[in-house]
Amino acid sequence: MSVQLEISSIFARYTDNKTNIELRGNTVGECINDLVKKYPDMKKMILDKNGNLRHSYDLYINGQSSYPKEMTKPVKDGDKLNLVMLIQGG
Q1: Does residue 62 belong to any structural domain of this protein?
Q2: Cα–Cα distance measured from residue 77 to residue 87, given in angstroms and rounded to the nearest whole number
Q3: How confident is the chain (90 residues) per 10-residue block, as mean pLDDT?
Q4: What's the predicted TM-score (pTM) here?
Q5: Alpha-carbon torsion 46, 48, 53, 58, what sign?
Q6: Which one of 7, 20, 39, 71 has the largest count of C-beta atoms within 10 Å of its C-beta?
């Protein structure tokens, strides 16, 4: 499966200045694994030590949040993923 990932320009320095990246996988997790295989520096930015998406990020599939269990959500050819940094504070 081929999906498009759109990321914020703040991550572009880790992805050869790309903000739209074609990924392969049948689940969100497989696509993220493809991302970090292509761009290893992204791993420490978005994944925790267990390989899960950090709590400060959310992934959207075609405009719908993939939370909870985002890494196991299925994707299909042509889907669009968006990686969004969540605003935190108090």
Answers
A1: yes
A2: 30
A3: 94 96 97 98 96 94 94 97 86
A4: 0.92
A5: negative
A6: 7
Is 90 inside a domain boundary? no
HEC string of the chain equals CEEEEECCHHHHHHCCCCCEEEEECCEHHHHHHHHHHHCCHHHHHHECCCCCECCCEEEEECCEECCCCHHHCECCCCCEEEEEECCCCC
- Give the residue among 64, 63, 48, 59 at the shortest CA–CA distance from 86: 59
Position 72 in a domain? yes
- 27: containing domain: 2-85
Q: How many domains in the chain?
A: 1
Q: Tokens standing for 38?
A: 């292509």
| CATH number of the domain residue 17 falls in | 3.10.20.30
